[in-house]
Amino acid sequence: MRVAIVGGGILGTSLGYFLAEGGVDVHLVERSDNLGGLVAPIELDELGGVRVDRYYHCILNSDRHFIDLIHAVGLEDHLQHVETKMGFYHDARLYPMSTPLEFLRFPPLGMLDRARLALTILACRRIKDWHDLESISVEAWLTRLSGRHAYETIWKPLLGAKFDGDFAQVPATYIWSRLVRMTDTRDGAAQKELMGYLIGGHLPVVEALAARIVASGGTVQTETAVSEVLTDTTGRIRGIRTSDGDVAADAVVLTTPTGIARRLLPERLAPIADRWGKLDGYLGVILLLVVLRRRLTPYYTTNVTDTSVPFTGVIETTNLIAPEHVGGYHLVYLPKYVYPDNPYTTMDNASLEAEFMGHLRRMFPALTDDDIVTTRLFRERYVEPIHPIGGTDRIAPIKTEIPGLYLANTSQIYPALTNCDSVTRHARHVSSLIIEDQFSAQPIGNDALLATT
Ligand SMILES: Cc1cc2nc3c(=O)[nH]c(=O)nc-3n(C[C@H](O)[C@H](O)[C@H](O)COP(=O)(O)OP(=O)(O)OC[C@H]3O[C@@H](n4cnc5c(N)ncnc54)[C@H](O)[C@@H]3O)c2cc1C
Predict the structure, then answer these.
(1) Total structural domains within the chain
(2) What is the pLDDT at residue 344?
């Protein structure tokens, strides 16, 4: 059986790897000139080709599935763990927020607020069954647990920044997943924050997965866009149409965001496309990368609760990644999560950059022109799938009624957050479904029966 995989991000390449390990002939097709999707790096030509993450990526100790994959492809030596720190930018001041003591000293909150915030985190860790949280709004749940003042001071601005100001329909499962994941970075009695990164970024992992697919007899094609899923007159899967010709396959897995996957279905599969359309909302991201000659903050993440600041946070990845791995520079990422109708999505790069840099300079008045080496602006339409309150039933299933047609993308990952760990786990699950289907689809003849007895 040959399986065509559309998309060469972490999901597509890890799925291809798991399938190839299971003896399946894989043909993976990626539109861009290199693999990786959101984890693909960029080269800064003006700095002699220094390669840096386009979108920052850290690895947590609890990312077992992704760490297992790193080991499986022999890249465990690239994995580094570092103690990191977190800050808060509140009321035009920067506060440390890395240790329980710093948390207890955080001035914007009174003793009662702090106690309730700590209880909120404990409550999250105690909840194992998330189903009840699905029908409660994140606002109602956090107000109940943390109290109105802590909600207004901390949670509301953070949620507003993450969800482009509109989180009325976001269920409590979101913050539950997030807090559980973030507290997983905490280590030992001192509750130090530990994070991991890969020397050379995530690209070597993706390339190693692709190499395993090829070594098993499969094919990996880049710079090739898929334009349609091909079916025969009875609706059976025939393969895919690509910019480089048709590829015959018995099964097709679409790992692209749902909005793209729907457009790849032929007219006769319109009912499936309609069903997939029930939950295909995604937040996009606009991100300014600022390359500096010096460190800006001591923090990996600085959360921003000042609602006049347009970006969601300040992520200084070189407080995790040793600067020597990125040309000796210091990298600061300013992400802004956006709905498709946010005016920023149509604003030109120069104006966006001026707006973001204006706010960064206001936050850090000591930042000078000499400190700034270069900047880059990135935009991505599909980043975080939106799961509204009670939306689980509308999540598109992996299998379709067409045998051999599968959808496998981040919109199906819930209530876990989408990250390389949950994506890898999803890929493994999808690969088992496909391999199971492959065997159940084979009529077992007498010869096969005799061979197994
Ligand atoms: C700003 C930011 C920060 C993040 N931070 C972290 C983090 O710290 N830790 C973490 O674990 N995760 C993080 N993530 C999330 C992580 O990057 C994603 O969950 C993961 O990369 C998703 O992989 P994917 O393969 O599902 O999707 P994608 O990477 O989007 O891959 C989809 C692929 O399909 C291809 N494609 C689309 N259309 C076609 C077509 N017609 N034909 C062929 N190919 C096509 C695309 O080019 C793309 O390569 C972050 C993401 C962002 C944006």
Answers:
(1) 3
(2) 97
Q: Which residues line ligand 1 (CB under 6 A)?
A: 6-12, 29-32, 37-39, 55-58, 225-226, 255-256, 260, 285, 287, 335, 380, 383, 409-410, 418-421, 423
CATH of the domain at 251: 3.50.50.60
Are 84 and 194 spatial neighbours (Cβ–Cβ below 8 Å)?
A: yes
Regarding whether 402 and 372 lie in a shared domain, the answer is no
Does residue 90 fall inside a structural domain? no
- The structure's pTM equals 0.94
Backbone torsions φ then ψ of 332, nearest 5 degrees: -120, 125
Q: Are residues 132 and 256 in the same domain?
A: no
- The parts of the chain modelled with pLDDT lower than 50 are 442-453
Ligand 1 nearest-atom number relative to CA 63 = 11
- Can you give the CATH number for the domain in which 150 is found? 1.10.3110
